[in-house]
Design brief:
Length: 330
Amino acid sequence: MSQISDYRPTAQGVAVAARKVAEILPRTPLLPLEVEGRTIWCKAESLQPVGAFKIRGAWHRLTALTDAERARGVVGVSSGNHAQGVAWAARRLGIAAKIVMPVDAPAVKLANTRALGAEVVLYDRPGGEDRDEVARRLCSESGATLVHAYGDPWIIEGQGSTGTEIAAQMEERGIGAPDLVVTPCGGGGLTAGLALALPKAAIVPVEPEGWDDVCRSLEAGEIRRVSPDAPPTACDALQTPATWPINFEILKARCPFGLIATPSEIRAAQRLAFAKLRLVIEPGGAAALAAVLAGKVELTDRTAVVLSGGNTDAEAFAKVLLAPSQDSFN
């Protein structure tokens, strides 16, 4: 089994990843949004070919494999967005891919992953089955390389290319590089990558209510897991039990604090993004915007907000758009 090596993610690695991503993908839009008299800049990663930023890390990781590793295939773990990123990159590179996904993953994410040619291996997330253990078993059986959703150095670097693009786009507009970036956070791959890409910016991760392990880890100074009785959440993309040391080493040095977004705030942010930006954003992808709109972080003149994904099915999104008016940013 080919596992994660001793390699550690670096700013130089992010720069390499950004060049690789730029060769195959156009930059996603950076859209202005007025919030309390200030203009913030929203990075529309929901418009990636797989509907989320995960395509960045997947491409950087799979293109770093040796010929022998490519021949043995890859195994990923994901609730759906990383799954599609790995499947997309694997198909383009001619690599066999198996993705360990929860039985309760959104149907649209399961269908899209299979449509991209990956084999989906389901695990019982509601029943407490360990997806990483399932992935390790599959790797042991075939010699495949584990492509973890966030605990992989190349994945972290690839996600960091989001920050490289944000800085370039803001500089081109004469604003200057961001000094505050607010981002959805699950396992911490994107958050850590942004921290490497933007060393002079404050990076603020936002998690859904009840799944705030990174927030609590930052407060404690050590990794804390999600509570065993964590509530159900619509933010499946951010539903991770704990960050990994490779991520937390960066987060604790660069993130001043973490924030929590409530289900009501997230739904309201989804509706505002649709109304003002004309974007379809999934619940997890709207978490950072929700925290900003709720006034949970003091904005600057150079604030960027990541809209990390838009993979939600029509029925679920329609319910959000038609939700009761009591949903608010309070």
